Amino acid sequence: MDRYCLADTQWAKIEPLCLGKAADPGRTGGDGRMFLEAVLWIARTGRPWRDLAPSFGN
């Protein structure tokens, strides 16, 4: 596991609080965990969104 990624136990605690779950009405986001990890990467590195690591996708 990458040391900068959320552990599965951490994600299990956070996931119910995130928007865009399958049970929510309307369109949901693609991958909530990947989005959260991207936000954490931005916060940790202080880099702008345009410099987001390619491993996080578009």
Q: What's the structural blueprint in terms of helices and strands?
A:
Blueprint: H1 8-14, H2 32-45
Q: Provide the low-confidence segments as ranges.
A: none
**Percent of residues in helices:** 25-40%
Instruction: Give the C-alpha Rg.
Output: 12 Å
Describe the main β-sheet briefly: none
**Span between termini:** 22 Å
- Portion of residues in beta strands equals under 5%
Quickly count the helices.
2
Mean pLDDT comes to 81
In total, the number of strands is 0
Shape assignment: globular
Structure, described:
With 58 residues, the chain is an all-alpha fold. It has a domain at 7-12 and 28-58. The protein contains two helices and no strands. It has helices at 8-14, 32-45. The longest helix has 14 residues, at 32-45. The chain starts with 7 loop residues before the first helix and ends in a 13-residue tail after the last helix.
Please tag this protein with its features.
58 residues, single chain, 0% strand, 2 helices, mainly alpha
In short:
By secondary structure, this protein is an all-alpha fold. It is 36% helix and 0% strand.
